[in-house]
Amino acid sequence: MRTEGDTWDIKTGVGSTALFVAAARALAGDEPGALAEDPFAEDFLRAAGAEWSALLDGDVPGHPLTETEFGKDFQEFQAARTKYFDDYARTAAADGIRQVVIVAAGLDARAYRLPWPDGTVVYELDRPQVLDFKRAVLAGNGDEPRATRREIAVDLRDDWPRALRDNGFDPSAPTAWLVEGLLVYLPADATEQLFDTIHSLSAPGSRVAVEQMDLLSESAAAAFTEHADETEHGRNEWIRLIYNEPRSEATGWFGARGWTAERVDVPDYLRANGRPAPGRQADGLVSTLVSLVTAVRS
């Protein structure tokens, strides 16, 4: 259960969800015709411990990520989300943006995966324990970033804009913001503050990509908590970590402030990319609840 001022590392609380997501990315990337691949996801999981390696090796019978409708949907969703944000980052780079900020970066390895143009600086904001784990794994494997990578070890509940500026961020230059897998872990007022801060730090030509999730209905929440044994890394634990409350919708919020915003629901995005997608009324499936938004500031 979330509490005011709670803390975590990569294996506990909100931090542990990064490993669950990395597992979904790794498994989805092995499927024929996968929408996206993240070769670094496996490295993080094997460094995290035997339970995660066993999952990758198919040695965890009955795991919700591999043997339930929820798990298969979650893998497809993660592949779709990864492709969406990868394409967004590539487009921003092609349009001349050289300043990228990944908010709550977790185990995002885009600084290492994507072909960034010379002069690109990628800022990664997250708790120090999460960044320390990621750095140790990548350095241990001899991996090098393909852009200038600057870690901003800060809790988003603290003064992260100041920490960003102190590390060279230039608010007068166009920025590409990535807000992936974050909003559900923020209360509604913190979401509003995050959007407002991004707006205030964004020069003309900046853009932001946001993943957002609809409010869980009672039936959807019940479906997520249906199986009592799916606890530590499954649906039961996840439902206790999120803030299931109404929050600002990104398309409308940024659109009202002069940004040009476009939204796509994940099932529609999957179908547009030739992948199967569940119906909109399916309960307990993440992809039916999530939409992806890109907004550009004139």
UniProtKB/TrEMBL annotation:
Q: Which GO terms describe its molecular function?
A: methyltransferase activity
- Please give the organism: Nocardia wallacei
In the record, the note on similarity to other proteins reads: Belongs to the UPF0677 family.
What function does this protein fulfil? Exhibits S-adenosyl-L-methionine-dependent methyltransferase activity.
Q: Does the keyword S-adenosyl-L-methionine apply?
A: yes
User: What keywords does the record list, in alphabetical order?
Assistant: Methyltransferase, S-adenosyl-L-methionine, Transferase
A single GO BP term for this record reads: methylation
Which Enzyme Commission number(s) are on file for it? 2.1.1.-
Give the organism's phylogenetic lineage.
Bacteria, Bacillati, Actinomycetota, Actinomycetes, Mycobacteriales
Q: What class of enzyme is it?
A: transferase
Methyltransferase as a keyword of this entry, yes or no, is yes
The protein's matches in PANTHER family, at most eight in alphabetical order, are given as: S-ADENOSYL-L-METHIONINE-DEPENDENT METHYLTRANSFERASE YKTD-RELATED (PTHR43619), S-ADENOSYL-L-METHIONINE-DEPENDENT METHYLTRANSFERASES SUPERFAMILY PROTEIN (PTHR43619:SF2)
The identity of this protein, by name, is S-adenosyl-L-methionine-dependent methyltransferase
